[in-house]
Amino acid sequence: MNSAEDDSEVTGVLSWFPVELPPAQRVIGLFVGKWTIGALRPVVQLGIPDLLADGPRTATDLAQRTGADADALYRVLRCAAATGVLAETAERAFALTAAGQGLRTGVEGSVRDMFLFASDPMMWRPYENLLHTVRTGAPAFDDAFGETFFDHLRAHPGSAALFDRAMVQNHYPGTDRIFEQFDFSRFRRIADVGGGRGQFLAEVLARHPGCTGAVCDQPQVVAEAKEEFERRGVADRASAVPTDFFASVPAGYDAYFIKHTLHNWSDHDAGRILTRVREAVGTRTDARLLIVDALLTGPGAWDLGKLTDIEMMAVLGGRERDREEWNRLAAAAGFAPADDPAPGDLALLEYRPV
Question: What pLDDT shows up at residue 1?
């Protein structure tokens, strides 16, 4: 029996479906993602998790409070309970589970805005014609909307605001491992290139009192960094520098880290960003480039990055990369590898100037 026919080779998301399916039918298990996200979105949009914060409520009560159809609301709540986001009790009453707490507004650890962003029509429509991307190599988003993703955000302030809120909540668990394992105290001055509101930089500075730093991003983005720095108690050691990283990057820093940014861009555009960083480093040999992004595994291995790569491709024209691809990109800008992190998760790749 060859590997294509060997049932033991069926792994990844195909292997989790709760009902034992013949190998040829296991793709059916993937349908669950569409059904559950479709049901959860109106639940979150109606603010049901917030209404359940003080305890269980019946579907009828929730329908009255939200102006929804009682039967239709019950059915999506029942689906949410089947996924574990809610718990269904007697008499069609529902309560929040620990997972459902993450869909409340304004609570610690909330991913509500991340969920609403990921399930927004602007993030779904590109998948309706992913074949366009496969045939042309161009983002399906551009074909669907007639403009690039970032141009779309500039033209739609509401979508841009949702994107910004989602990125604030985008704290992947692997990030904590990087904070714990990498010694940022090696660098007195740190530049966070494309760092948004500076959450990552603020965490670095909070953990390392001897460090100072600057978040370098678009003016309208870094304008909100001061509030984040004050909230984290690092405002005396952090600054915000309006930056177009395609044009230039501020010089004079010991380390330049770029987190969850380069995967948004094609090799050509990511290379432009790294070239600007290399220009900022100049003749220094002790400065470092620190890339925090997915590091893909080899052929056939399960890897979440291989899934998110499709979103990068369809929406932004970007990509997730393996070590060879990262090294090639960095080398073209004038950097050589200085560490060897394990693939298969978020990784910090350290590069030295050459």
Answer: 36
